[in-house]
Amino acid sequence: MAVKSNHVTIKGIKDGLVFLLDDQCDFEELLTELRYKLEHSHQNILTGPIIHVDVKLGTRSINDDEKQTILDILKKKGNLLIRTVESPPIGPEAEPLTGPVVMTGMVRSGQVLHHEGDLLFMGDVNPGGTITATGDIYILGALRGTAHAGVEGNEEAIIAASYLAPTQLRISELISRPPDEWETRETVMEYAYLQDGVMKIDKISNIARLGRDFNVFKGV
Amino acid sequence: MGEAIVVTSGKGGVGKTTTSANIGTALALLGKKVCLVDTDIGLRNLDVVMGLENRIIYDLCDVAEGRCRLNQALIKDKRFDELYMLPAAQTKDKNAVSPEQVKDIVLELKKEYEYVIIDCPAGIEQGFKNAIAGADKAIVVTTPENAAVRDADRIIGLLENSEVESPKLVVNRIRPNMVKSGDMLEIEDILQVLNIDLIGIVPDDEMVIKAANSGEPTVMNPNSQAAIAYRNIARRILGDTVPLMQIHQKKGMFTRFKKFFGMG
To answer: Among residues A10, A75, B51, B145, which is most buried (max CB within 10 A)?
Structure first.
């Protein structure tokens, strides 16, 4: 039997052997090669005193049966003592960490920015502009337009803005109009960045102009 | 290749046509080769403000539909050899031309002229789309009123999603005494909301109305405050750094009297 490909790499470390098993190839193919190497090509190295073995599976995730199959093959060689089997956590696909999605830009009059989930918006929402989310809305900038959080009925949702002077606020089904007279507050959030080696300060609403790979909102 | 600048506002009556006429004339005054284009089909005014109404033979629609050559439709200004105007049609509506047709015409004009100033109609419909089709840059005109600022914001939003470079703002018709008494929106507040670069502020000036009625752009009159403001804008378009005009009230007889005696 000829094994052309090399899916199984055996490396010696100071106190044992490491079996590096390829994580891209077919699993059956991998087993065949492993058996072949143990029984034929590397026979002489694998006889003698007890050797500690670490098995590394890379990014391949395997179930318990598959793991047992690998162990059985290795156990056939009496001198191999399996110390560890390293593989990615088994179980449901690791859920990506859900945090607010960050967007920048400017919601101008007549524009609507809608987001499914929590939204962190860096920029201004102008009068006549609307920002909506099924979750929370955090605005780093001025909210002068309308914000609607928890649009699908989430009453736990919140709206936060560094400058809160909305035309109207809505959370879930509830609509609120700010008092006719707002106290005049002046809070302008700024950010610092480097340009040609010089630190510069600008308003947060200009952050989209940085040209970084931000999620910039382009409304119509 | 010249540069095409569209003058737009969203809201009507804030001074788009006046601004177009005056910026165009001011650029010509500074020795530039300029062509003004009126895209307000059906409600053309630019020709009236420029005092060229009675010279119109062909218009934008005639050029678009191939009834005449572009050069035949262009009207040479009374005052400047290097200032021309392409009038809009009065008998049709905005749908009479397409953005592609306007784009082609503007492109053709840019080969010949250093600046093509496009006067945009009010609104955000077809007329607006026609006007911005061929433009490289945009000037948004607003007045210190909430309604005008709101519409300017809408227009800026639309411009930001078009091919046009980020627009510059002109705040028109500022009344010095009202700013002083705090009854008018302050420039700083307007900029806070619109968040675009300011290219000029123009004080409210009765001479502008007088000039428009006589078909002579205000900018020709060096005694007018608005004229100086428009000249400054033209210089900024050319890349000069010109400080913003100080908006102040005309001094009354009494303060002048005090000043005379070294008391003011």
So the answer is: B51
Report pLDDT for B184. Answer: 84
Residue A165 and residue B122: Cα distance in Å, rounded? 29
Q: For chain A, how are helix, strand and coil distributed in percent, rounded to 5?
A: 15, 40, 45
Is B8 labelled as part of a ligand binding site? Answer: no
**Strand partners for A121:** A103, A139
Per-residue pLDDT, B257: 52
B87: Cβ contacts below 8 Å, ≥ 6 apart? B38, B44, B46, B47, B52, B56, B59, B60, B73, B75
The answer on whether B92 is annotated among ligand-binding residues is no
Domains in chain B: boundaries = 3-260
Q: What is the mean pLDDT of each run of 10 residues along chain A (220 residues)?
A: 68 82 83 82 72 82 82 79 74 62 94 95 95 93 92 86 87 77 56 70 75 75
> Which residues on adjacent β-strands are paired with residue A75?
none
Tens digit of each residue's pLDDT, chain B (264 residues): 999 999 999 999 999 999 999 999 999 999 999 999 999 999 999 999 999 999 999 999 999 999 999 999 999 999 999 999 999 999 998 999 999 999 999 999 999 999 999 999 999 999 999 999 999 999 999 999 999 999 999 999 999 999 998 899 999 999 988 878 878 889 999 999 999 999 999 999 999 999 999 999 999 998 999 999 999 999 999 999 999 888 755 545 555 555 555 554
The size of chain A, in residues, is: 220
CATH topology of domain B3-260: Rossmann fold (3.40.50)
CB neighbour burial string for B159-195, b if at least 16 within 10 angstroms, e if fewer? bbeeebeebbbbbbbbbbeebeeeebbebeebebbbb
* Cα distance from N-terminal residue to C-terminal residue, chain B: 52
Residues B170, B139 contacting (CB under 8 angstroms): yes
| Domain residue spans of chain A | 8-86, 101-210
Which chain A residue has the Cα nearest residue B158? Answer: A220
Contact of B163 with chain A, judged by CB distance below 8 Å, is answered with no
On whether B33 is known to bind a ligand per the annotation, the reply is: no
C-alpha distances out from residue A144 to A106, A128, A133, B150, B168, Å: 11, 8, 17, 11, 22
Question: Which of A129, A205, A220 has the CB atom closest to B195's CB atom?
Answer: A205
Question: A-chain residues within 8 Å CB-CB of B156?
Answer: 108
Pair type for strands A119-125 and A137-143: parallel
Sheet strands side by side (includes A137-143): A101-107, A119-125, A137-143, A159-164
